[in-house]
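User: Hi! I'm working on a homework problem where we have to compare a predicted structure to a textbook description. Could you give me the structure for the chain below?
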Amino acid sequence: MVGEPAYSLWISSLEVASWDGRVLRLTAPAGKHRWMAKRFAGVVERTAISVIGSELRVEFRAPGSTPGRREVQTSFAAPAPGLNPRYSFDQFVIGESNQLAHAAALAVAEAPGQAYNPLFLYAPPGLGKTHLLHAIGNYLEAFGSDALVRYTTAETFTNHFLNALSSRSIEGFKQAYRSADVLLIDDIQFLASKARTEEEFFHTFNALYERGRQLVVTCDRLPQHLTAVEQRLRERFEAGLVAEICPPDFRTRRTILLKRTQIDHIALAEPEVLDLVATRVTSNVRALEGALVRIVASNSLTARPIDCELASAVLGVIQPRSTASTSPTISTIQAAVADHFKLSVDDMVSSARSARLAVPRQIAMYLARELAAGSLNEIGTAFGGRNHTTVVHACAQIKRRAAADQHLLAQLSALRQAITSAQSDRSC
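Assistant: Happy to help. Predicted structure tokens:
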């Protein structure tokens, strides 16, 4: 059975194309028949059998079409790049920084030409806009839509256009791009200052838009900041939905790393490795995953376990603390830990040895050693003039306890996030 919303939206739109006593052929909305076949064929077939009283098979077809994927015949020789199968909606980690862009991309994939047209995704490099672009195309492929999807980059579009001009196959070029039902263009900023290519893209854009075809473009800046692109094209981009992808917060960064370890079956000796990497690498997703790859490679080459010691060593090479703009100060860490345990910083760094103060003090030393730029002696001095051996002992104690105490692990993770947020606020 299907619910009332699904029936009203999809099942009620089906029409009987033919019935020969064995096969019931149904006409579905254009571009949706293969997706509907996957989703509704079973329930429609069972319902039809119960009504007719004999075995039958149900086929879904597009209006006026025959089975099989539509191909565009063209003399234009240069094909557009293929879609990366790893870039799917399932593999995309959703957070506050990308929620709107993800929702818009999914809406476009489910109803191309009907939701947001054009869809303009913008973000600095490495934050996932290409992932979403490929995810739209892969979604349409996975659900068997008849829509002809063409993915390309602005640079490739330019090269194709120049090749078409030199080979006198411009009509084939136009057919290849203007016949698409969904056109996905990556890095549209590279059209800037290319007058003839920009002119051709403008006419391609208009030809598709006027026929209700879907356009999705990505860019590293807002449309109004594409000052080297013609105003009329900027206005076309602004007429649709403009969705920003921001740098991921700590929670999203950690989830991205966790998902990558699950996909690639990476065995961590210490789960707090993810917290360490998510705290130290904040620029973009590409750098985040790259750091994890480096740590895993080091593990493979040295046979050392993937623990915080190995992660710190690798991060120290690829992102030295002296150049890391987000490295928190010891005082920031002390304040965050004191606030978490409802203490004052003065009490925490005092000479008192009660358990109420000793444990938070050890946690603060452990996080200072992990996250801050100070030496052991500098950390000890900041904690009431203690020596470096006290700091080493504190770090060892917390590391040992965290290996068996899930509550302490959760506290450390929450504190890393609080420290990162406090450091970001101080940098603004």
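For your comparison, note the following. DSSP finds 18 helices and eight strands in the chain. The beta strands are 15-19, 23-27, 57-61, 119-122, 149-153, 182-186, 214-219, 241-244. Good luck with the assignment!
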